[in-house]
């Protein structure tokens, strides 16, 4: 029978397993003390209900207490601070191109290769439309009970997207009473304010519990120009405009070389503003002694903005033949000719102008994400009892986006031809000219998901060493997505890059099974097999084999070998061609700016990626040192047929060196003509990465205090992609792959108070393009919590205590660095209170 005590015990065990030494720990470290006489519970990475937390796969858990103590404001901030993260997941400091989205990048293998679950079930992809990953902004911090990070390939259990691992976000539930929380902070510069208000209400019934929550959060922007370490920008697009690279002197009317580069940092955000409104609920009702109805609901509205300098208009204008004035060309007067302004061989001349008179580009998004999941669970009176679960999950994301102060290229050309003197004279634009060429770009998009799943688990039969446990399940999933750019952009008539609409869907039917076999009292095997049939590329079969061996009472050895896959997303299959201004170095020196337009293409014939993953490690809890445990795991992930865009910089360099195939692949014309530079999606990519994770957790008493030490280290041995070794490198296109990343936490507590010191280390790297040495950085944090009563507590803390500045990266993507890797805000002070009634 199912009783409320069983449900309560399960939740309590899971919470106990998630208690960390101040931040994150390996679940297995606590397995031994919690393994006796407890109910079976669900563990991330397996469908089999277990009586202990020991599995072959490494799992890190971050609980609500650690989240509050560290002053995290968003889920992406929680995750990206972990040493196992690498690459360049977009977030609050991504001002260019992310549309306010926040993502996770486990192992640096790409956000679309980390599966995000909410309460063990898939979360709908979200963002501005036809998205291939989950926007973590949709999940408010206030609703999180804990975050579980499975650092192992899990396609055989969860299907597509779990190549690099799984992030399972568990929400607060089984709550009774009312709780109100206020958390906020700001930088020591007096900007970047953030606040979160949340309320939680729950009540018990005779047969269950219902928990409801509301949350509001706001994050204010920080300008790049407000930080002394940000170097001045040097863009060739200036407000006065240039013609053929020449600039007019408005006072003398003379033309000559461009005299300066425009400083765009004064108009760009370092931290982007964001507002979120969320409602969430969890419910559980016992229908009878053998059946439970449960469900959860989440709704989040996000309003976000990014801002960059005024639109850089880049037009090629036709020069009138023999300087005979016409309606569709410009004439070069004598002052222009004397200043060196001249048409090219095709009778064209390049005109560049920073459209400051129109105003800064302001990107604005309003997204609505809704998810509801409901399930029936029960027990079949067979053998020792078999658990069954049937669920339906629906998710929908809709987004409207705007780009204010956009420029209509076609109208601008017409205006220039009709008003040449007004455009080239260097004087401010008239309102009539502004109205004629400017508009607000509007787009809309969305994602939708339906998942129906069923699973049966239990014990099949007994062996001498124990029972053989199993899980068998089936799942149907439908995914769709669309994105509709502004008609001006679709027509290629804007000064922003041209983009086509995206619209498509796919279905997948899956069956899977897992078996846990105790070969001996010390050796247990875990086996999983899954088959997925897609309506797009076909079918995929994946498997997983894991072993745990209790070598001694103190030492457990574990290893996992698994295969995985990632199905091409809607945007990868059906995404229309789109342009992107990438930071590149032109070896021919034809381009005036490092941001070069690249045409991105998709392919409906893409196949699924395939992968192999291996982990091997140990969990050691020495009996002679009470309270100490450590884990050590070696891991390796290999992806073949990776869906990826090729390295454009490598293509440029190879083409320049005489490789004709590189010129053809990237559509590079004669003499380095980059007017049709293209980067296609292909299945020829690969990734090969390996490393070592180490965790030490130690709790002890001393000096009349309770102490907790936790240290997480990731040592990256190798990260290679498409023939390029990124190990120990950093760049604006791919992010950072430091060889060493480490988090250290030390907590001292006594009675009602606790104080924590932590630091985060990012090792030295090399600039991937220039080879320059990039120094390491160490961030120091300190915080404290005091419980005035059982229902009232307060916390305060300082992040980046020593106000470390981000390391300069020549090939960085914003503000002369890579904001997704380093702390760009400086010292931040935060505080909060929690009241429960």
Automatic annotation (TrEMBL):
Residues 1-31 form the signal peptide. A motif (TonB C-terminal box) lies at residues 820-837. It is found in: Cell outer membrane. Pfam families: Plug, TonB_dep_Rec_b-barrel. Keywords: Cell outer membrane, Membrane, Receptor, Signal, TonB box, Transmembrane, Transmembrane beta strand, Transport. Residues 384-801 form the TonB-dependent receptor-like beta-barrel domain. The lineage of its organism: Bacteria, Pseudomonadati, Pseudomonadota, Gammaproteobacteria, Alteromonadales. InterPro entries: Beta-barrel_TonB, Beta-barrel_TonB_sf, Plug_dom, Plug_dom_sf, TonB-dep_rcpt-like, TonB_rcpt_CS. Belongs to the TonB-dependent receptor family. This is TonB-dependent receptor. Residues 53-166 form the TonB-dependent receptor plug domain. It comes from Shewanella electrodiphila. It is a multi-pass membrane protein.
